[in-house]
């Protein structure tokens, strides 16, 4: 790659915050060290001793004494803080810096942001980017504890003091637990037991402090496995043995002593338990390493991730080129500026690999690098180059590159093991140009064959004796190899001709024919002692030389990838197994499919591969009619122009060798093509799953008032379970904070007036803002309709309140919405361990309602809380075609995107286990780092005052802080506090805080001196902007300031706009509004059917529920009410008695005439014409040239002929469950039966087989093959 090409994607590193870097470096080596104020410990210790004396002496401390003690404690704390403040002020620090030779901050380089109405501005220049992140920004952290303690209650204060106690103070926990009894005879035993308890507790505390593990996990492990005290007697025995000194056996050999006490978790707990709780050594390494947890997991197994500069530039180029080619295949390159695109991709690779920034951090804080800005006719233009899906794809390519890199390094090592004088031009060319694993494998095969004998020296003895190239080495050493040398052209020159697509090297015929040369070289008693053997050996070695030539392989692969045709070859098994309702029916007779046609239907090829794995089809990849012309074209590059018999003989030999080579290469290349189409299809399906899941998760909490988007509502969740006649209606009233205000069970039928009274009373009492309904089947629709009537008749409305809790006058009443809610999360929650732990006293349907209410309040948290069960959610109808780990990665990537979009109120999450589930999806973190962060904050008082405390208090390391900081929201207090950073309540990254302050100062029209003076006040310049009006920001000209920043290498155009938006509306709800289900989605929710599976013209099975001579009414297994009018049953002019012909409970097949998806009703027909035109399964689009109609007709005729034979032979079996039915008829017969019913029927496998068809559940049947033996003939002709 040229210097210019490398420069085009050269990394542009944004300026970093020195304060953060310095603080992070101190935290790298000692991440979780805790600093305890010794004076406070003394105070606490004195107070504890005083309290214990009071208790022992029988005193009860009154309120006045308690208040007096609190005042003394508060006075001591204030006095101590004053002493700390008096140690070094800012002037002293400045003097120290001057004495140390540090230079003062340089002058600012940027002008003030101009107001829209101003044309010139001669004011003093404000602070520049070089001064943006000074050490002053971190001041105030020392006072954090004071502010936190003032607001904390007594319980929190006591808890925090206890956490700050050194380990030796925990011994007092058992002091005086057992009073001394001077009359006891067991004093010594008690003392020993008490000492063991103290020792065990101290060891637990010491281990918890040094292991950096979550205390909850350790407590859980100790609860399961104990702390080892039950084995204390054995340890005491060992200790006694140790006191006896060395022991020797009868031979005088020293007897080894017992092992020491275990020092690691692996010596105490089973590895699988540690792995399940993320407590292995590897998990601990992930916790403390300053790399995002997800990155560490993805990079696991990569031998060398950190590359040198040239290797890293190669990676940037490879990722950029590969991604551009992928865009090219989707015809998206027309919208892109190629140079800008390649440069942007290279920069993103730098952010990921070198800066360890996760996708949300890049998207939120480095968004300018995903855009291309330029000026056209004096106007600023912005072109979007990359989206979030693209960033995740670049991350995948970053990992994929290392497989290529490691393969390339292995080949280099292989080549370097050859003799020093070895010089191979093919190697030198391909090692630089190879861009894929396939190309590198070609080079590997070439070297292995060409230098097989030289490479033997690097192999062990067993490999030497079993080398697959041994026969070729014998041929090379024999005289018959002269025939190959006189072939007129070698494999390398032929490859050059093919690569150039022209005959660069001409072929010369030897004066003798190949047969004559072979006769001369054949020797008796040699390995090739006959002409046939010798000729076979010549063809074999020359064809092998051709087949391993990388240039020939590359050309064939390129041709197949561009022109290959895919056909489906149906097997005999597939002819019977792939029916019209099969998931493989749409490609049963597929032919002439181009490889590019799968780009827009990625599931199609994956289903083909699945059918092939089941033995139903064979996927054929070929050039079809173009293959022979292609071979002829290749042969022109190796044939001679001679016309003599000798020339003809040589050309025939060359043609035979080329044919042998292609016979070996074509299947291999076909597999490569299939693999490439598979990986492309999986990639496309991966991002389809991402997009589908984003639609599920990207929802704000529901609220009936649009202006209150993002506000959590009060929810009344209602369900009648399975909706049977004896099923009660249950309601759960969930308040804003997720607490259950009421749980009510209605014993009355919901159609009764008493139900209406109770429900109305509940609604008036609780005042819900939404009534959410969900259930298991169509029966819920009747309850939904009834509750809508109750709400309307009783005028149940939403109370609209302003910010102060009052209802504004003149506000129109809003009727409480009654809506269906998806049940997929609630169905998993109701039977989960989590539900059992939280609500063990509530019935299953009540837990279901709780899941519904939680979903309405936060769809994101409900999906997150599912854990590993999330993969069982239906996201994409073909998601099962992807490996589960890829589905999980697609889901987790969406969780990361949306969690960072929404942000996490970190202090609320620390106090709530339900809310804390989102922390692991914040950029930089993961389940391990999240648990460590939670534990760290809890041990530091249980509250995070400022974002920069994450680094200053050693809660995170530098890179993790750079990723997670902007996504932790710390809401601003009602009153400004000097210790609180107001910008922590925004999405602005701490590295951009100075930019935000500068914008605020310029919006207020402040000089630099005025800004510095105001910054010393509570709230600073940002607080003053909030007080005087954030609308002043609209007067700033950000475009000019962005130009100034870009001149100094800082791309902040998009960042400036984001800062403005956050200052005006911090953490605004950016998610889409809560999705209200459409009628089609409700139909699918309650019936599990869709417009694709239940549509007009389809043949369906219905179970008769009621018969009248005028009509028949029935239900499908999915609960759809079906009506058959007499005119759609009896042909015109005929007179049937419907009650005599049909019976209740009978399953019949009918054609769908019409369907109302809103009311779950369908009109069916039994007329012959309608049945003959009806279809089962989904409609299959069949196009001429892409569907093998001839093969389909042949198979249909064979099936009809077979059916005629079967109908002439009926089995006679005296068994009450035997029926002469086929599989379809058996399933229809059992459709109306209860689960567990079965029939015995003839088998299609022959007269010695029977089949048991067993109904497992609705739409779910199992066909069991039974083999008969020693039976008499039971066939009736």
Automatic annotation (TrEMBL):
Signal peptide: none annotated. Residues 22-50, 83-93, 132-156, 172-190 have a biased composition (Acidic residues). The keyword Ion transport does not apply. Residues 70-80 have a biased composition (Basic residues). GO terms for molecular function: DNA binding; histone binding; nucleosome binding. Residues 1053-1080 form a coiled coil. The keyword Heme does not apply. It is found in: Chromosome; Nucleus. Its main location: nucleus. It comes from the Eukaryota. Residues 1-19, 115-130 have a biased composition (Basic and acidic residues). Residues 1-190 are annotated as: Disordered. Histone H3-H4 chaperone that plays a role in maintenance of chromatin structure during RNA polymerase II transcription elongation thereby repressing transcription initiation from cryptic promoters. Mediates the reassembly of nucleosomes onto the promoters of at least a selected set of genes during repression; the nucleosome reassembly is essential for transcriptional repression. Essential for viability. This is Transcription elongation factor SPT6. It comes from Ambrosiozyma monospora (Yeast).
